[in-house]
C-alpha cells in the first residue's frame, strides 16, 4: 500500500507504567506495568480498524498514547507522515482538529452544568474557529443534525439530565464531528447503551464515515460489534497484538488460540447452527509479572513442544494476516 494511502502508522509503541511499592522502592529494581508493549500497525485512509480484546489488554491505553493524552515510553506514531510523539504543544493543538476521540461513557464526559450548544461548541471556542456566536450556534445545529438529532434547535438548549443515553452518545459524537476531523478513535462508544439502540448508533457511525470520508479506529471487547463496523481486526492480549488481519479472514479462520476462543463465543442468530464454545482456563496474568516466553501460554490449550521459550513475533499466515504464535510448521 502506498504511503499516501496510510493516514496513521503506529510503530513499536510501548507504554510502561512505573510500579511503586512504598517509600523504600528506590532501593529495589524497577518494575513496570507493560500496558502497551511493542505494538505496530497501519490505518488506511477511509478505512475502519477494530481493536478488540478482554478488559485490561491495553486497547484504551494504546488509543490514549497515540493521541498523546499519556506520553509514550518508546516508539512512534506517524499521522500524515508527522511523528505525533515528537510534536510540541502548539503542534498537538493543531493535531486535535484532525484526530478526535469518542469516549466510552458520555455521562462522565459531558458536563451537566452546560447546555448542549455549549458542550458541542466547546471545541470551536477552544480553537477560536468561529467569528461570532451566531456562526457557532449554526455550526452546532448542523453537527446535531448530522448525528440525527433533528431539529437541532430542540436539543441545543437542553441539559444532559434531559437526554437519554443514546442521545448523549450522539452529542459526544457531534462534539468530535464539529471540528471536521479526518480520523476518529472511538473507545467502546456503544458499550454504555441499551442493546436496542446500539445498532442505531453503529449505523449512524458507518453513515457518517461514508458521508464525511472519515477513518475509524474502533475499540471494543465485543467481536460482533467489531465485525459490524470494521474491515480490519486487531486482537490484543496483555499489551501485545496476538493476531491481526482482514476482518472476515480473522473471524472465519482464526489462527491464534486466543482469537479462536473469542470467535467461538460470538453469538450465532441461527439456532440450528451448533458451535463449540472454547472456555479459557485460569486467570489473565498480571501485566507486571508476565510469564516467560508467550504471555498467553498459561491459558493456552494448544501449548506443546513446538512452542519456544522466547516471546513469539508476528509472522504472516495469509495476505495481510499476521499471528504471534508458534505453530508446528512455523
Topology:
Blueprint lengths: L5 E14 L11 E14 L3 E5 L6 H8 L7 E6 L2 E2 L5 H7 L3 E4 L3 H4 L6 H11 L6 H14 L6 H4 L8 H13 L5 E5 L7 H18 L2 E6 L2 H7 L2 E6 L2 E7 H6 L4 H8 L50 E4 L2 E3 L7
Parallel strand pairs: 3-8, 3-9, 6-7, 7-8
Antiparallel strand pairs: 1-2, 1-4, 4-5, 9-10, 10-12, 11-12
Helix pairs in contact: 4-5, 4-7, 5-7
Question: How would you sum up this structure, described in words?
Answer:
With 330 residues, the chain is α/β, with parallel strands linked by helices. It has a single domain (3-98, 181-323), classed as P-loop containing nucleotide triphosphate hydrolases (Rossmann fold). It has helices spanning 59-66, 89-95, 106-109, 116-126, 133-146, 153-156, 165-177, 195-212, 223-229, 247-252, 257-264; strands at residues 6-19, 31-44, 48-52, 74-79, 82-83, 99-102, 183-187, 215-220, 232-237, 240-246, 315-318, 321-323. The strands form two sheets. An eight-stranded mixed β-sheet has the order 6-7-8-3-9-10-12-11, with helices on both faces. Strands 2-1-4-5 form a four-stranded antiparallel β-sheet. Helix 5 (133-146) crosses helix 7. The protein is globular, with a radius of gyration of 21 Å. The mean pLDDT is 89.
In short:
The protein is α/β, with parallel strands linked by helices and 330 residues long. The protein has eleven helices and twelve strands.
Amino acid at each position: 500500500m502506498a504511503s499516501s494511502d496510510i493516514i496513521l502508522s503506529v510503530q513499536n509503541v510501548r507504554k510502561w507504567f512505573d510500579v511503586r511499592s512504598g517509600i523504600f522502592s528506590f532501593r529495589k529494581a524497577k518494575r513496570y506495568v507493560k500496558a502497551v508493549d511493542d505494538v505496530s500497525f497501519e490505518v488506511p485512509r477511509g478505512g475502519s480498524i477494530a481493536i478488540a480484546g478482554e478488559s485490561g489488554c491495553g486497547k484504551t491505553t494504546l488509543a490514549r498514547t497515540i493521541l498523546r493524552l499519556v506520553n509514550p515510553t518508546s516508539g512512534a506514531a506517524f499521522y500524515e507522515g508527522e511523528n505525533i510523539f515528537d510534536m510540541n504543544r502548539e503542534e498537538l493543538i493543531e493535531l486535535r482538529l484532525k484526530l478526535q476521540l469518542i469516549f466510552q461513557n458520555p455521562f462522565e464526559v459531558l458536563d451537566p452544568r452546560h447546555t448542549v450548544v455549549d458542550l458541542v461548541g466547546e471545541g470551536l471556542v477552544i480553537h477560536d474557529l468561529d467569528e461570532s456566536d451566531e456562526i457557532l450556534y449554526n455550526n452546532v445545529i448542523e453537527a446535531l443534525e448530522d448525528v440525527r438529532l433533528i431539529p437541532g434547535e430542540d436539543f441545543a438548549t437542553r441539559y444532559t439530565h434531559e437526554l437519554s443515553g443514546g442521545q448523549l452518545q450522539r452529542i459526544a459524537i457531534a462534539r468530535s464531528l464539529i471540528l471536521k476531523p479526518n480520523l476518529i478513535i472511538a473507545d467502546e462508544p456503544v458499550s454504555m447503551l441499551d442493546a436496542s439502540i446500539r445498532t442505531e448508533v453503529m449505523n449512524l457511525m458507518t453513515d457518517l464515515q461514508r458521508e464525511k470520508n472519515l477513518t475509524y479506529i474502533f475499540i471494543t471487547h465485543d467481536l460482533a460489534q467489531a465485525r459490524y463496523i470494521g474491515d480490519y481486526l486487531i486482537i490484543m492480549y496483555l499489551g501485545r497484538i496476538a493476531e491481526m488481519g482482514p476482518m472476515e479472514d480473522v473471524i472465519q479462520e482464526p489462527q491464534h488460540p486466543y482469537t479462536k476462543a473469542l470467535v467461538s463465543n460470538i453469538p450465532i442468530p441461527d439456532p440450528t447452527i451448533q458451535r463449540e464454545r472454547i472456555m479459557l482456563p485460569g486467570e489473565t496474568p498480571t501485566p507486571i509479572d508476565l510469564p516467560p516466553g508467550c504471555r498467553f501460554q498459561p491459558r493456552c490449550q494448544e501449548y506443546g513442544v513446538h512452542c519456544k521459550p522466547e516471546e513469539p513475533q508476528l509472522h504472516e499466515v495469509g495476505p495481510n494476516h499476521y499471528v504471534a504464535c508458534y505453530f508446528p510448521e512455523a
